[in-house]
Every structure is written in C-alpha cells, then in structure tokens.
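Retry 2 of 3 after timeout on previous attempt. Resubmitting structure tokens to design endpoint.
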C-alpha cells in the first residue's frame, strides 16, 4: 500500500469535519468506506490517527502532523490544477469561502450570483459564522477568502476593504418607541437589550466606535445571527444595535425603526476580505477577489439591498 492522494483527501476531510459520518456525507460515500480508508491509512503509517471517544473523535499527535502536511499537499494539488486551467483559459472548480453574517446574508449571495453568470463553471461553497471564527478558518487554510464585519488583526492575516456598512440603534416600532427619536447614552443601561455574540463584527464595531460596551447593558438575550435579533426585537424582547443592511426591509415596512443616540456620531464600519498571507490563492479565488474588490460591483449590490 502507498500513501495515496485519495487517502490523504479522506483523512483531511475526517479531520476537518471531526466525524466519520459527516465526512461520509461531504464525500458522498458510506461511513464504513470512510472508516476502512482511515484504518488502512493507520495500518500503513503504523500509528493511530484518531482517538475514538463517545460521540466524537480526537486527532492524535500523529494525526495533527499528517493533517498539517496533508493539507499543504492538497492545497498544492488544487493550486496546480487551477493554474493549469487558468493557463488554458478555463476557470472552473469549487471556491470555499467563509463569511460573517452581514456580508454573508446581505451582500455575498448577490455577488456570487453575478460572479457565477460570468464564470458558470465555478461552484462557490459559503459557510457563515462570526468574524473571529471566519478569521480562524482562513488562518487554518480551510477557506481561501473570509468576509468579516470588523478589523481583526492576526499574524498571517491580510485584510482588504471591500464595502462600508452603517450601524444604528434599532427598536420595535410599538407604542413605547413610536414617538421616540433620540435617547441619551445614560438611558441605555436600564433598557432591555438583545445582542449578538461576543465574536460578532457588528458588536465589536459598535463597542469600539461608540465607546460603549454590552457588558454595561441589561442584556436579556444573546443570539448568533442578525435575523434572530430582528425577530426578537419585533417580538418586543428589547432593543439592539444592528446593521442597516440587515434591517432595511423591516424599517421600510414599519415593523422596526432607528433611534439616534445623542452625542454618538453615525457609526460606520468597514467590511473586509481576510486572506492568509502564507497561502497562494487559487485562480478561482483570485478571480472572485478581483470581482468583489471592483467598487462598481459592490456599489451596485449595496444600492439594491
């Protein structure tokens, strides 16, 4: 038996998914097939690659070493394939990106659709998380591009600005708030707040630029997406800071409204593309990055949101 590339691909998939069954789903094969490949690989290497614990698997030291080199091998394979396709004027294949919720929910779907119309042979896989996790995925080499809503500096990470968003205090348009247009910062602490999770770009940007902290507020609910926060506000749970991209429709329909915080200037925050400085982008990723960084492309989509 040889250390074949296909076995490395299976192993890296199991490592990244943390599960034999999830890896089987991703690779579109059976779980026994995946388990058999890993056993064969362990037999060839002469060491266990995963410790099987109840309901989860944990990579061993040998598994960590093999993944580090295996992921580099697969990245080189993909880079070689894409470079050859670019040389032959054939941009095709799969692009893996991660995004925080605001660009992922309100900008990227339309941008991806426009990009696909230009390069129909490209398939884009996008996963959504908070900004901190997105940066970690890029640094780990699991995503070529990451789209985030806050500047997060990390060794090995390069950030490129691609759009600007505005944050606002958003409240339910009910009897309590209908006639309220301005509030003093001192009034905010006593209000019931609904917040995003600590790793959220929206939350980080507000705290940095407004000089206020959610730790000082009466947070009655903490949610992992802007959509969940909006629904909580419409249900009357509290108030929140949200992206204007996220609430444009609700404000137009009258279910939510914005209120000015006295003494706090309009809060603008930049949206960035995160890139791993130590990895070479594939031709697909380069093409998509160039498309996104085209000011006209993003501006047209911002205008339509």
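Retry 2 succeeded. Sequence:
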């Amino acid at each position: 038996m040889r250390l074949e590339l296909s076995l490395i691909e299976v192993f890296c998939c199991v490592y990244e998914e943390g599960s034999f069954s999830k890896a089987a789903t991703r690779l579109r094969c059976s779980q026994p097939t995946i388990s058999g490949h890993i056993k064969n690989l362990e037999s060839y290497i002469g060491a266990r690659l995963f410790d099987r614990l109840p309901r989860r698997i944990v990579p061993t030291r040998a598994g960590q070493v093999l993944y580090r080199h295996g992921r580099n091998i697969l990245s080189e394979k993909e880079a070689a394939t894409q470079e050859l396709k670019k040389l032959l004027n054939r941009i095709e294949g799969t692009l893996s990106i991660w995004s925080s919720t605001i660009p992922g929910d309100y900008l990227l779907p339309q941008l991806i659709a426009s990009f696909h119309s230009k390069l129909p042979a490209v398939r884009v896989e996008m996963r959504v998380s908070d900004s901190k996790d997105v940066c970690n995925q890029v640094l780990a080499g699991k995503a070529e591009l990451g789209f985030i809503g806050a500047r997060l500096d990390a060794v090995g990470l390069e950030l490129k600005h691609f759009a600007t968003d505005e944050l606002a205090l958003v409240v339910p348009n009910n009897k309590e708030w209908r006639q309220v247009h301005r509030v003093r910062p001192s009034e905010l602490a006593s209000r019931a707040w609904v917040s995003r999770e600590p790793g959220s770009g929206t939350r980080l940007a507000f705290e940095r630029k407004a000089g206020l902290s959610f730790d000082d507020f009466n947070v009655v609910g903490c949610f992992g997406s802007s959509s969940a926060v909006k629904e909580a506000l419409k249900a009357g749970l509290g108030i929140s800071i949200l992206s204007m991209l996220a609430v444009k429709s609700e404000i137009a329909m009258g279910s939510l409204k914005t209120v000015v915080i006295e003494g706090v200037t309009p809060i603008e925050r930049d949206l960035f593309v995160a890139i791993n400085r130590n990895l070479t982008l594939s031709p697909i990723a380069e093409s998509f990055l160039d498309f996104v960084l085209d000011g006209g492309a993003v501006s047209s989509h911002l205008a339509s949101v």
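Attempt log closed. The mean pLDDT is 87.
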